[in-house]
Amino acid sequence: ITMDDLNAPHSMGTTIIGVSYDGGVVLGADSRTSTGVYVANRASDKITELTDNVYVCRSGSAADSQIVSDYVRLYLHQHIIQLGQPATVKSAANVVRLLSYGNKNFLQTGLIVGGWDKYEGGKIYSIPLGGTILEQPFAIGGSGSSYLYGFFDQAWKEGMTREEAEKLVVKAVSLAIARDGASGGVVRTITVPNDRYVRFF
């Protein structure tokens, strides 16, 4: 390990996943944060609450993804106060998209927004590097995602139960951790609604 490694930006070479099921969404992530080749934190939390019903999975530059999440949380808090009702998943994802696209020359972060609202139920939105927005039944991101596309083509299906979706997310993150040197630590998941924060070691 050189000083260049220790002074490199904190990056979340990562595996992040969002899966919708009948009635909600499951989000998952590994927990390794790297500084060059040095593991700066083996138990970081890459799933961030934006509102009671919407969460974001963060990948790329840790600093960039944290500041985007902080701004979005602030905007949504104001939005909730003004409207007197919870923000929708779509409005949260669009605020993330506006910030990511408006600052695309400065940010190095890919995000997955997932949550549940009474209008559209469980929704997953992927906002990759560059700030485009994709609504998908499932989304995978980070350096570990390249190992998982074929697995998801085979394993994901319409109308999964909550338990099936949770098992799929844990298995997928575990598979990526086994192959991707930049992913590691523990698998963290959150299920919305009925948010139960689960840690699998």
UniProtKB/TrEMBL annotation:
It comes from Genlisea aurea. It holds the Pfam family Proteasome. GO terms for molecular function: threonine-type endopeptidase activity. Belongs to the peptidase T1B family. Component of the proteasome complex. The active site is at T14. CDD domains: proteasome_beta_type_6. The proteasome is a multicatalytic proteinase complex which is characterized by its ability to cleave peptides with Arg, Phe, Tyr, Leu, and Glu adjacent to the leaving group at neutral or slightly basic pH. The proteasome has an ATP-dependent proteolytic activity. Component of the proteasome, a multicatalytic proteinase complex which is characterized by its ability to cleave peptides with Arg, Phe, Tyr, Leu, and Glu adjacent to the leaving group at neutral or slightly basic pH. The proteasome has an ATP-dependent proteolytic activity. One of its GO terms (biological process) is proteolysis involved in protein catabolic process. It catalyses: Cleavage of peptide bonds with very broad specificity. This is Proteasome subunit beta. Gene3D superfamilies: Glutamine Phosphoribosylpyrophosphate, subunit 1, domain 1. Its main location: cytoplasm. Keywords: Cytoplasm, Hydrolase, Nucleus, Protease, Proteasome, Threonine protease.
